[in-house]
Structures are given as structure tokens and as C-alpha cells.
Amino acid sequence: EEGKNLDKLLGRFDRYAAASYPNTERMPTKSSIRLDFKASKLSYDLVPMLAVEGDDNAQILIRADGERRVTSVQKHIDFVKTRSDQSNKVPGRVKFHEVVRLVKWWREMRQSQSKVLDEVPTIVIEMLCAKAFDVHHVDETYTDTLHAWFGQCADWVRNRRRIDFNVDPSKEPSNGLWTVLDPVNPKNNVVPPSWTQRKLDELTSWFEDARDRMARVVAAEVQGNDVAALGELVELFGTAIRDHGA
């Protein structure tokens, strides 16, 4: 029975993390133990999940409000891999999984400066990126790709457009202020139920600012103004982009 209590599971995972990564900062979130690797400036979440009896490809995710959601890590990996494989067939250096990483990196920067939106779940970012790829694929450059994706996401969030993957709305209706359905289990709306209009408005402003900055990066690159382009990229991704954005 202890295994069904999220607080007890988080305590157990915290002990696992302390034993495995004694020199790494960690902190509990509502549903995970977050590890912050300062050297690489990356963070990872250890998320407790329960097995589903009789189904090795399914897990139960326990939310902070006690809700239990059936999902599948394996099927999510396949979902992402399908788009990575499609991207790899497109000539050029831009790859789906790398653009997703950049958007997640941008998300971390924005969360650190947030007013009301303290955390955007990774699955929300991944679903938006997957849908943006389905609509726009990837362009010849990362800047053009990010400009298109940020712009598309800004429109989706501002207008609260439903995001799903070949789901019949009559069978899986929208719920909440905004709906982004889990492709593995379309009964799951991955948008946190605690998100208010104010939080969604802030997420809209994040994407609109990113879209506009990427437009200025594209324009600066066309003009050969590398200093201006880098300045905008630093605003989006932080000073680390100076070393890693070549």
C-alpha cells in the first residue's frame, strides 16, 4: 500500500537519488525528484510510476492530486522516434530531436524568469514540438525551423487550439481551458488542470516573444549581422549559446 502513496514514493526516490548522486543537487517537485547537474546545466526528473499487471508496456503515473493515469514510456519513445526517423531522411543538418532539445532548453530559461507559470511539463513541450513537426517538418536551418515552430505554438496557445494526434473529438472531447491529448492514451489531457487563463496567457507571451526574436535572428543572418543574431539568441537561450551555438 505504501507504493501507492506518491509522497512515500517520492521519499523513496529521494533516497535512491541521494545514494546514486550524492554530490548532485536535488529537489522534490509535485510528482518527481529533480536532479540538477550544474556542470552540464541540465536537469532530470526521476518520476515514480507503477507497473500495470499483465501489460509490460504500460505504467501508471500518479499525479499530485491523487489521479492515476495509464501511459507507456515505451510507446512515447516510439512516438518520438517515428518523427526523428522522418527528420533524418530530410537533407540538411536540422534534426527533430535536436530542435526539441533547444525548445526544452528555452523552456528552462523562461521558467527561471516566470511570473506565474512556474513549471511547464516536459510532455507538453514534446507534444507541441511533435505537432509543429507534423505541420512544418524542419527547414534548412535551425533558426528558420525554430521561427516556424515558435510561431505555430504561439497561435495554438493564444487561441487555445486543441492539440491531438488523429483523435476523434466526438469520442475524446476537450476538457479544461486548453487540451493537449496524450497520443499514447488520448483520455489524458497533459495540460495541468491547475493552469489558469493567466498561466496560459503567460505561456502565449513566451512563445510570441520567442517567435519575434527568432524572426529578428533570421533577418540578422540574412544581413550578415552575426552580432545582432547572437544577441537575440542569448536572450532566448542564455549565455551558454555563445559556446554551444556554433
**What's the oligomerization state?**
single chain
Order of helices and strands: HEEEEEEHHHHHHH
Characterize the overall form. Answer: globular
Number of helices: 8
Q: Span between N and C termini?
A: 52 Å
Proportion in β-strands: 5-15%
User: Which strand order do you get reading across the main beta sheet?
Assistant: 1-2-3
Average pLDDT across residues?
Answer: 91
Write a brief structural summary.
This protein is α+β, with helices and mostly antiparallel strands and 246 residues long.
What do these coordinates show?
There is one protein chain. By secondary structure, this protein is of the alpha+beta class. The protein is 50% helix and 12% strand. The protein contains eight helices and six strands. It has helices at residues 6-20, 73-88, 96-112, 122-136, 142-158, 197-223, 226-237, 241-244, and strands at 25-28, 33-37, 42-46, 49-52, 55-62, 68-71. α3 packs across α4 (122-136), α5 (142-158) packs antiparallel against α6 and α6 (197-223) runs antiparallel to α7 (226-237).
